[in-house]
From TrEMBL, chains A, B:
GO terms for molecular function: oxidoreductase activity. It comes from Streptomyces griseorubiginosus. Residues 3-97 form the Pyrroline-5-carboxylate reductase catalytic N-terminal domain. Coiled coil: none annotated. This is NADP oxidoreductase. It comes from the Bacteria.
Length: 215, 215
């Protein structure tokens, strides 16, 4: 698949790494084109399988899946501006709409960043929540403590959930389909607790992951 | 500690098992006294460490910690009726206020079963959310796939969180303090997804657990 990642930060690096391991072609586009070029160059040197390059916004038109790897406020704005040209495409929201104290979500009770982004993008865009519980460094390695990451996937479009599950599995991760997009609220809520656990005494320093452990 | 468990079902069995492994004394009280006697007899035969007996409601007065091991609607009613005699005691809410389809919580957005139970019990009761993400059979064994269960703990009373964490750790489980009681919403929300994952195709059949996996 053609994966376009919007953003050139740590989450872009992590998700791009998994997509390249899965043999997909990745285009990095960012507000600062130099950063996109730098990230693409670094990923290219690692020879993961798929091809990677930096690109401009025209990469959106060639993409099968677009990933908004930027913070929630920026993602909501980009969803609104990109929405009309993403008709029929899968748009992945990875954001965590947390306040600075990691004590609450900044979206209203009963809704989620993903639903806000879906509303901004418009009904023709197939919005999927994924990768919000996986920290950047864990995505780069694909595992924590030797166990593949769980990637929780929510969308009102069942085929889109399946496409993202295939992307996730191809990169060596474990997709977990949790159903409708409204369940992004529960994913964002639990990740708020997970984030707060990183920085307290004895915390995990952004190296842990949320996993459904089965026998 | 003296632990009184209200209820004689599978969750009562699981939590009682952990408390007995931890060397605590457990009293089982239930609407149907015969069921309480039967569970206490079965647990007693297993010789876990602590002492276990069935009792009537007077066991509430001797308890350091009271566990409401009944469904949410019953727990809310019991919290209201027991509240006045539980002044200063720790009351553990384990409930999951899910609808029959496992698609939504039955408590309003922005609140939780735990906060409802705290309101019903009254300010003098130290309400703690715990054990809502651990299925009964996993509590009996204390582990899933060889790894100890995480038990997520929320309360506005920091000392109460610590007491419940000690109870959890004494039974061989891993306490995870997530802070204020309002975060019960996030625990109940994510457990809704976890419960729905049990019954779908390829589901976990009530044998999995939610874990924060660290390196």
């Amino acid at each position: 698949m053609n994966i376009t990642i919007v953003g050139a930060g740590n989450m872009a690096r992590g998700i791009a790494t998994r997509a390249l391991v899965g043999g997909h072609d990745v285009t990095i586009t960012a507000k600062d084109p130099d950063k996109a070029v730098q990230l693409a160059d670094e990923l290219s040197e690692q020879d993961h399988g798929g091809q990677v390059a930096a690109g401009d916004e025209s990469a959106l038109d060639r993409a099968d899946i677009v990933v908004l790897a930027v913070p929630f406020a920026a993602a909501e704005q980009l969803a609104a501006s990109y929405g009309p040209r993403l008709s029929g495409k899968v748009l992945i929201d990875i954001s965590n709409p947390v306040d600075a104290s990691l004590e609450a979500l900044v979206v209203a009770p009963g809704t989620s960043a993903a639903e806000r982004i879906a509303a901004a993008a418009g009904e023709q865009v197939r919005v999927v929540k994924a990768f919000n519980t996986t920290f950047a460094t864990t995505l780069v390695s694909g595992q924590v403590g030797g166990t593949p990451l769980d990637v929780f996937i929510a969308s009102d479009d069942e085929a889109a959930r399946k496409e993202v599950a295939d992307l996730v599995a191809s990169g060596g991760l474990n997709p977990v389909d949790v159903g409708a997009l409204k369940h992004a609220r529960e994913l964002e809520g639990f990740q708020l607790l997970h984030m707060a656990l990183q920085i307290r005494e004895g915390g995990h320093n952004w190296a842990s992951t949320i996993k459904i452990v089965a026998p």
